[in-house]
C-alpha cells in the first residue's frame, strides 16, 4: 500500500483566493459603465429668447452674498447647486458659487432663495 502524504489545512488567506471574482474579459466592466454613461447623456437645451432675457435680468439683479439655486449644463447633464454668490464676473462670463465657477453659456436657470 502506498504511503499517503499528510494533508495540512490551507491557510485562510490562500483559501479566500479561490473564491475571488473572475473577470474573463479585463476592462469589460469599465467599458460597460462608460457606455451606460454615454447613453444617459442628454443634449444641451437652447434657451428661448424670453428665457435668455429672463436669465440675463437675474444675472443683473443678483448681488454678492445672495443665496441662489443655479441649474447649469455640465458634461451631458443638468446639475443644480445651491449656495451663496461669491462673484459674478461679466468680463470673464463666470458665475462663482462656492468652489464652482460656472460659465454664463452653461447657465439654464437661476433662482433667488429667500431666507
Describe the protein.
The chain has 115 residues and is α+β, with helices and mostly antiparallel strands. The chain has one domain (12-115): SH3 type barrels, CATH 2.30.30. Helices cover 28% and strands 30% of the residues. The protein has 3 helices and 5 strands, in the order H-H-H-E-E-E-E-E. It has helices spanning 12-17, 28-40, 49-61; strands at 67-74, 77-89, 94-97, 100-103, 107-112. Strands 4-3-2-1-5 form a 5-stranded antiparallel β-sheet. A hairpin with a 2-residue loop joins strand 1 and strand 2.
CATH class: Mainly Beta
Query: How many structural domains are formed by the residues?
Result: 1
Low-confidence stretches: none
Helix content: 25-40%
Radius of gyration: 28 Å
**Major sheet: order of its strands?**
4-3-2-1-5
- CATH architecture, by name, is Roll
CATH topology: SH3 type barrels
SSE order:
HHHEEEEE
Number of helices: 3
Structural class: alpha+beta
What is the arithmetic mean of pLDDT? 84
As a percent range, the share of strand residues is: 25-35%
The major sheet is characterized as: 5 strands, antiparallel
**What is the CA–CA distance across the termini?**
90 Å
- Beta-strand segment tally: 5
How would you sum up the global shape? Answer: elongated
Which short descriptors sum up this protein?
115 residues; alpha+beta; SH3 type barrels; five-stranded antiparallel β-sheet; 3 helices; 5 strands; 28% helix; elongated
SSE layout:
Layout: H1 12-17, H2 28-40, H3 49-61, E1 67-74, E2 77-89, E3 94-97, E4 100-103, E5 107-112
Antiparallel strand pairs: 1-2, 1-5, 2-3, 3-4
Amino acid at each position: 500500500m502506498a504511503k499517503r502524504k499528510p494533508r495540512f489545512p490551507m491557510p485562510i488567506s490562500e483559501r479566500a483566493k479561490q473564491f475571488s471574482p473572475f473577470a474573463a474579459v479585463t476592462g469589460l466592466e469599465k467599458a460597460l459603465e462608460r457606455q451606460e454613461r454615454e447613453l444617459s447623456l442628454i443634449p444641451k437645451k437652447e434657451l428661448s429668447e424670453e428665457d435668455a432675457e429672463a436669465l440675463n435680468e437675474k444675472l443683473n439683479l443678483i448681488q454678492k452674498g445672495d443665496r441662489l439655486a443655479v441649474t447649469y449644463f455640465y458634461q451631458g447633464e443638468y446639475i443644480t447647486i445651491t449656495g451663496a454668490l461669491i462673484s459674478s464676473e461679466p468680463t470673464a462670463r463666470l458665475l462663482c458659487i462656492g468652489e464652482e465657477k460656472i460659465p454664463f453659456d452653461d447657465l439654464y436657470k437661476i433662482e433667488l432663495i429667500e431666507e
